Amino acid sequence: MEYISTRGNYKSVNSAEAISLGMVPEGGLFVPEEIPKLELAEIMEMKDQSYQELAVWIFNKFLSDFSESEIEESVKAAYQKESFPRSEKTPLIKLDQNTYILELWHGPTAAFKDMALQILPQLLVRAVKNLEVEKEIVILVATSGDTGKAALEGFKDVEGVKIIVFYPEDGVSRVQEDQMKTTGGSNTEVVSLKGNFDDCQTAVKNIFADKEFRAKMEANNFQFSSANSINWGRLLPQIVYYFKAYFEIVKENQVKAGNKINIAVPTGNFGNILAAYYAYRMGLPVNKFICASNDNKVLTDFLETGIYNIEREFKKTISPSMDILISSNLERFLFEVTDHDSSKIKEWYQKLKSENKFVIDQQTKAKIQHLFSGHYSTETEAKAVIKTTFNNFNYLLDPHTAVGVDSLNKYRQQNKDQTTAVIASTANPYKFSRAVLESLKEEKIEQDEYRIIEELNDLTAAKVHRGLRGLENMESKHQHSCDKNSVKEKVAEILKLSN
């Protein structure tokens, strides 16, 4: 299995190199040269396997330069009981007759990013070893809240790796910020950036593409990589849980093997829904993908019009992990639906950089709309869904998953499509306790976020995630900050780079 650039500007590489580099050094993202296409019979043979066995099966399809024992060891280390105490790593909760919630947040940091970021360090260390890379790997991460802590937790004290996380100041919840700033480990650094997530993400991408700075890094015996979903090693593990969810639904006799389901995903960077699309391309029976957005509805507008336009107001919302205007993984998706037309991708993304927008052709737009439906929720609508879902089902949603539920409801109302659906639940509700409690009580709450967690627990009896208990009493270990124009200088300072 070889990996190629979405912009046709780099040699093909094996999976170890794609994971080690993180993104294409010249700009662009690595994608598999070919997606393995599986027959239904082969897929359904796996329906009774554990999550770990399913992960090994899928990884073997894509990581052909890793030995089977390397993959098995990586999976075993990542999904051990200490990190994922439940026997079901991604529990599937039936909300009503034809709606399921796929809980992806039972890992150490209470977010879906754990499903990938517990295994990425395992894969990266083995990739670097196989490639005989002697330089120290520097992981640069831009986070809108959840990726940061999950990456820090995954890479903490991993030998031969340093990790630097950038997050938007005032753009994450108090709990998210405290989770990052209290992280231990001799190789972890956290930096608050005066700006929004797109500023963080753009700065990190620019550093990756800066040849002069990369040369300076190499002269100091460092090499960049990424833990964002621009890294194929981050995206690949997310494919696994969509197969697992389908098998559970089939075993419940909700659908027959081969019957299609709908998948709704709250997303800002388009990575989690892209993983579902890759599962579909492999053979998972899917009827429609519902792409759920908040008030920063750049993806909703794109799916409706074919115009990707970031020239708009950036809004801070109660679902901050989706407060994104530049959806990195959309590039991979467009590369796939244009049948690997790298010249189109290059042209569109040059226009995005120079004009803040691009327009896709009608054929590509029609192809996308056949499979994808975009919807969005206002904060008022998301809060209403949190309240009604708790009242009707005694089930507590976080604000991101609420957007997914609301978008699925809107899709169903508009299209009269009652196909059994799975909604990706991306975070534990206690990570966003203020928004959840305000939704239930329908009033503004000013008190400290940790007192809110206590009140929410008293009100709902929903269990507080272990990764959030006692957080307020932990010591803050990271004090770095910078503005969006001095990220490169901050990296150089942290790494003590010599000229």
From TrEMBL:
Keywords: Pyridoxal phosphate
GO cellular component: cytoplasm
Post-translational modification N6-(pyridoxal phosphate)lysine, affected residues: 113
Coiled-coil ranges from the UniProt annotation: none
CDD domains in UniProt: Thr-synth_2
Biological-process GO terms, alphabetical: threonine biosynthetic process
Domain Tryptophan synthase beta chain-like PALP intervals: 89-365
Annotated ranges, domain Threonine synthase N-terminal: 2-79
Pfam (any one): Thr_synth_N
Broad EC category: lyase
Cofactor: pyridoxal 5'-phosphate
InterPro entries registered for this protein in UniProt: Thr_synth_N, Thr_synth_N_sf, Thr_synthase-like, TrpB-like_PALP, TrpB-like_PALP_sf
An example Gene Ontology molecular-function term: threonine synthase activity
EC number: 4.2.3.1
UniProt cross-references to NCBIfam families, sorted A to Z: thrC (TIGR00260)
Family the UniProt entry places it in: Belongs to the threonine synthase family.
Protein name: Threonine synthase
Species classification: Bacteria, Bacillati, Bacillota, Clostridia, Halanaerobiales
